[in-house]
Amino acid sequence: ETDRLTTPRILRDLMTRHGFTLKKQLGQNFLIDPYVLDAIVAASGVGGQSGVLEIGPGAGVVTRELAARAKRVLAVEKDRALEPVLAETLAPFPNATVQFADFLQTDVRALWRSFEGCDAVSVVANLPYYITTPILFHLLDAGVNWQRIVVMVQKEVADRLSARPGGKEYGALSVAVQYHAAVQTVLRVPNTAFLPPPGVDSAVVRMDRRDPPAVVVQNERLFFQVVRAAFATRRKTLQNALTSGLGRPKEDIQAVLAAAGIDGQRRGETLDVREFGCIADVLNTLS
Ligand code: SAM
């Protein structure tokens, strides 16, 4: 019974019975491919003692598979019109709860209290494409102790998440994610896996927390300020980007880069995580 939500006829019937219509503006492309569903659940690695935060459960196709395996599932869904749908699909799973809210407005640390007594927490999301990046930053910035993140994202975002320095895909998102996690693309997903099919292809990406992070810095906030400043203006040299982005005198920035052994004429997108760490540590010592 549980895997039948991936059957388009059954999913359509469910939505019709509850008078629910898909909203394009909320990125509602529901998963209808059972093979992809299995891959997401397997990648999440959840077991009997796990907690799972799901962002955007939709009709609950992924949620119920997670709830069947995990100790506790908390799903955050923006669209209240899905309430009767989820009440039906999650009825067999008392360990699954839905909170109706915009994830970007939630206090992630408060959500985390639901996972007391769980031995590890995974985050699983088939994300609305228009807000993938803000959602990932909202999660990473909260500083909560997730063990793994498994997300379905647009293929271009998957490339950015795992991008190496030097290419045009490499940016603040790549550094933020790679600082915290080892990133791997698990599966390419064609648009036919969704109802309705989106205009882009997708990929499932798995991020496993690195503990310690990829580079150990004295001041994490400062590290991310440096990263953001370096990528804020891509055409500028690193020296100019940091001068304007950090609001400090040019001579200070030149001295910091010299002490860190980094050429100020380089572009921010050529620096790796370790080099950003060097700059942040020198800055931290001076300020
Ligand atoms: N997980 C379901 C699936 O795989 O079929 C639905 C995935 S659909 C791509 C994205 C879901 O995220 C939709 O249910 C949408 O309503 C929800 N959503 C959109 N924006 C959101 C937000 N800001 N916070 C929480 N959920 C959101």
Automatic annotation (TrEMBL):
Instruction: List localization entries.
Output: Cytoplasm
Q: Which HAMAP family match?
A: 16SrRNA_methyltr_A (MF_00607)
The yes or no answer to whether the keyword S-adenosyl-L-methionine is present is yes
Judged by the first EC level, this protein's enzyme class is transferase
Function of the protein: Specifically dimethylates two adjacent adenosines (A1518 and A1519) in the loop of a conserved hairpin near the 3'-end of 16S rRNA in the 30S particle. May play a critical role in biogenesis of 30S subunits.
**What residues does the Ribosomal RNA adenine methylase transferase N-terminal domain cover?**
36-211
Protein keywords: Cytoplasm, Methyltransferase, RNA-binding, rRNA processing, S-adenosyl-L-methionine, Transferase
- What this protein is called in its record is Ribosomal RNA small subunit methyltransferase A
Which residues are S-adenosyl-L-methionine-binding? Answer: N29, L31, G56, E77, D102, N126
- Pfam families under this entry? RrnaAD
InterPro entries (alphabetical): KsgA/Erm (IPR001737), rRNA_Ade_diMease-like_C (IPR023165), rRNA_Ade_Mease_Trfase_CS (IPR020596), rRNA_Ade_methylase_Trfase_N (IPR020598), rRNA_adenine_dimethylase (IPR011530), SAM-dependent_MTases_sf (IPR029063)
The UniProt record lists the EC number as 2.1.1.182
NCBIfam families with a match to the protein in the record: ksgA (TIGR00755)
A GO term for molecular function: 16S rRNA (adenine(1518)-N(6)/adenine(1519)-N(6))-dimethyltransferase activity
Recorded family membership: Belongs to the class I-like SAM-binding methyltransferase superfamily. rRNA adenine N(6)-methyltransferase family. RsmA subfamily.
Query: Which parts pass through the membrane?
Result: none
Q: What is its main location?
A: cytoplasm
User: For this protein, what reaction is catalysed?
Assistant: adenosine(1518)/adenosine(1519) in 16S rRNA + 4 S-adenosyl-L-methionine = N(6)-dimethyladenosine(1518)/N(6)-dimethyladenosine(1519) in 16S rRNA + 4 S-adenosyl-L-homocysteine + 4 H(+)
